[in-house]
Amino acid sequence: MEKYAITVDDLHISYKGLKKMSIRSTFFNKKNKEKVDIIKAVNGVSLKIEKGKILGIIGKNGSGKSTMLRAIAGIFSPDKGSINLYGNSISLLSIGVGFNKKLTGRENIYLSGLLLGFTEDEIRKKEKQIIDFADIGKFIYKPVRMYSTGMHSKLAFAITAILETDIMLIDEVLSVGDIQFRKKSYNKMKELISAEHRTVIIVSHSTENLKELCDEVLWLHNGKIKMIGKPEEVLKKYEEFMGN
Amino acid sequence: MIQKILYNFKKYKFLLQQLVSRDFKVKYKRSVLGILWSLLYPILMMAVLAIVFTNVFKFSTPGVNYLVYLIIGLVIFNYFSEASNLAMSSIVSNFSLINKVYMPKYVFPLSKCLFVGINFLLTLIPLYVVIIVSGTELNIYHLLLPYVFICLFMFTLGMGLLLATISVFLRDMFYIYGIIQTMWLYLTPVMYDISMIPENFQTLFKLNPLYQFINFARSIILYKNIPTIGQWAGCGVSAVVVLIFGIYIFRKKQDKFIYYV
């Protein structure tokens, strides 16, 4: 059994500035050519996360939190450095992936699940649970375009919450729907996060949520680690810093 | 390496299936005739073109039925044109997915080529109806046709991957390709016979892979010949070369897509 679930080693990710390419800038503005806009979103981050731990990431807007999360999920490929997941299955919790409004809710469960990287069997096994959790009655057999906004997000949440992976990446703790469902979804979220074998990374701006949920908190500042440690200590420093 | 490809293929096979069936469902949902359009649409299109070219322009091909001649060319060219177009836009239009989850990006162009491929197989039904009605006799060599269909698929997939890559970085490609396609249609002997081209240009026209595919199918269906070794090689080589080139470019650039879409 591996001790660690995720190791990130010297991770660098930069956005090459999306300069507008047009005939005018190509032919008339030769000077600008050398000036390539490089934004370093993540700049040399290394960290190790033990199996079953819950890590919170905090930092001001644009500090590279979401970029790092997406790199761990495999969406961005790093410029330099490496990410090792030790063969764990991973998912970035994002709601309503690949929903097609013309297909029924049931068909969308399959489509969305597959796009999230699950196999047909896994989805078939969980299908009933998802439908029960979403709790939208016979609408599950109707095309998604007929759903109210609330039903839409209830189904979407149910899919991501019931189809679980070893590692879960969460970009802002989600709670959707009416008050009743909001409570249910927050509790489900907590249940998912705190399951013993599951490794979780949560990105959030809410220090309260992080304090309640995490074992460890990482403070990211301008793409670098500013501090990592016990939630109380890091969050206290962070609040002081943001207060100024 | 091969093991990894096979593993990936197994893992994403069902996803591919779902993407293709999604395309089908979405395409015909809310239309009264539904899937019937897959048959009806090519029939009507062929009918229009057949009337125009046989009655208005009075094209003909000596010795063989012109209508069959024309339709073979159209069926093959239309597959290429539709599939390469959809494959080209498949990456850009699925950006919201690529941005949220990891999956091999080639599934999008591939699923489009497969989806149009199923439609292509359906259009073979009206093609065979025309062949039989026009009195063109069937022969045993028809069993060789799947070879050229596979070549056509590989060539189209290769082009689709290439176009998808280019269009991510250069959106102008959508417009440019529209014009290229129109030129391509007229430069391919679909509606006319290659013998109508001045002789010194004919070699140039024969370098066109689509001509190779169409010619292969025509020699079997219309002229009842076994294609020559040159024809076999022409189809196979152009298909493999373009597919490998497409895969190479796509793989090399796919990690950069996310920054541009």
In a few lines, what is going on in this structure?
The complex is a heterodimer of chains A (244) and B (261). By secondary structure, chain A is α/β, with parallel strands linked by helices.
Describe this structure in words.
The complex is a heterodimer of chains A (244) and B (261). With 244 residues, chain A is α/β, with parallel strands linked by helices. Chain A has a domain at 95-198: 3-Layer(aba) Sandwich (Rossmann fold). In chain A, 37% of the residues lie in helices and 25% in strands. Chain A is built from 8 helices and 9 strands. In chain A, strand 8 (216-221) and strand 9 (224-229) form a beta hairpin. In chain A, 37% of the residues are buried. The model of chain A has no long low-confidence stretch (mean pLDDT 82). Chain B has one domain. In chain B, helix 2 (37-56) packs across helix 3 (66-93), helix 3 runs antiparallel to helix 5 (107-133) and helix 6 runs parallel beside helix 10.
Main sheet properties of chain A: 6 strands, mixed
Assign an overall shape of chain B: globular
Report the average pLDDT across residues of chain A. 82
- Rg of chain B (CA only): 19 Å
Helix content of chain A: 25-40%
| Number of DSSP strand runs of chain B | 0
Average pLDDT number of chain B: 89
Widest sheet, order of strands of chain A: 5-6-7-3-8-9
Structural class, from secondary structure content of chain A?
alpha/beta
Q: Which tags fit this structure?
A:
heterodimer, A: 244 residues, alpha/beta, Rossmann fold, 6-stranded mixed beta sheet, 3-stranded antiparallel beta sheet, 9 strands, B: 261 residues, mainly alpha, 11 helices, 0% strand
